[in-house]
Amino acid sequence: MLHGAFSQAPFAPYALAEWVVRKSPGPLATYAIDHLGHRALPSIGYMIVAATLVLGFVLGRRSPWRLAAIALIFTVAAARLDPLPGSAGGTAASAIVAALTVLAAATAFSPARRPDTEDEVNWGRRRFLAGTSLGLIVIGVGGADLVRTGAQATPTDAVRADQPAVIPIDPTFMDVPGNSPRVTSRGDHYVVDIDIEDPSIGAAGWRLAVNGVVQTPQSFSLLDLQGMKTGEQLYTVTCISNNVGGDLVSNSRWTGVLLDDLLDRAAPLSSAVTLLAHSADGYEEGIPLSEIRNHGALVVFGMNGQLLPRAHGYPARLLFPNHYGMRSVKWLTGLKLLDHDQTGYWAQRGWDREAVIRTESRFDVPRDGDTLRSPIVCAGIAWAGTRDIESVEVSTDGGATWQQAQLEDSLGPRSWQRWQTTIDLPPGSYTLGVRSTDGSGMQEDKTVRPPHPSGASGYHLITIGVVA
After folding, report:
1. How far, in Å, CA of 304 to CA of 160, rounded?
2. At what angle do helices 88-109 and 64-81 cross, to 10 degrees?
3. What does the alpha-carbon distance between residue 64 and residue 101 come to, in Å, rounded to a whole number?
4. Cα dist. 47→51, 54, 194, 197 in Å?
5. d(CA 311, CA 329)
6. Is the pLDDT reported for residue 104 higher than 80?
7. What local confidence, expressed as pLDDT, does residue 40 receive?
């Protein structure tokens, strides 16, 4: 709870869990994601917390003072392993509170001594005082947690854009209940990262360094970025571990500056071949400079007209067009130019280094398993990185035949495309499928593949029942 109240004070089980996550070998990390999905990270945290409690139970008959010493040493040791290290003062405070809490708990819940070895009245008084102290610690730190939660709420300050996004409205396109909106709200945007707990970064001390093999190293504050020429773009972000028909895809308005503008100020040397983007949580992504230069990559600080939420990389993050979210580093702290090749966090663990977004489509309406009356309204979304969507087709017979769906007017080359159609079907059971073709003429890949290592593929199929 002290960690909840003061982010610079580490919580030993979480610190250890974060270390385990980053040190896990690639095949093990991939296996955990394949079988647990994005429950894998919190599961590790829960397991280590549970193991800590079991350890406390096993050691429970030891002297309360000895247990307190163990808690203090364990907290300090775990803090040294934490990829998100807190301050020295925070570590000391966390260790002291952990020791005092364990001391109070061990004293309050230890078996009562026999009257012939110690006065029973005095022992009862001591247990009462220990229990009261424990309760005060819980209430005090818990109250501080609420205060900090309120103080560090999601940033909501409005951001401006010199070139705001223009989002057209198609009067011929019907808003189907249950279909995705044109713009995903801040609260509904998917979140995936390697952290059990997101980094908590204040804008006051944050700087974005641009250095390495450059002529003029640069350092930018949040105010510096906001004072530059800014633009807003409607941009679809999707996770490489998204399953066919999955919900790890969102479409938001992002405000920021062109990465090229920042790099131009630093003036990369001719020997620079790789851009290494570094996050406050230790995550890194190595990108060949030729792939990201002059491709419209952004360093963004705003989302849907407000500062970035903490979960999406506040104060700033990278957006790398046409590539899965693993390459768009959040909580950005450094952009380093290298004269050699270097792979990123997930590529080192066996995922596709290129991570180019596949052409994909999805049903939002109807849902798999629905029973409906004809005519049936079908609607959903399709996306293809920066390649736009040329057409979407729907099948009512499991892919034997296809019919064209209506597309909403394009929201831009980086945005998803909404589609809809109405079909008339007699009573029965049907397997509906959807496929899309992107602006380059490439049709969605029907080969069924899992997310690892290059993103899932295959047509999104659903089964519905039609009644009279």
Report:
1. 10
2. 150
3. 10
4. 6, 10, 17, 15
5. 12
6. no
7. 58
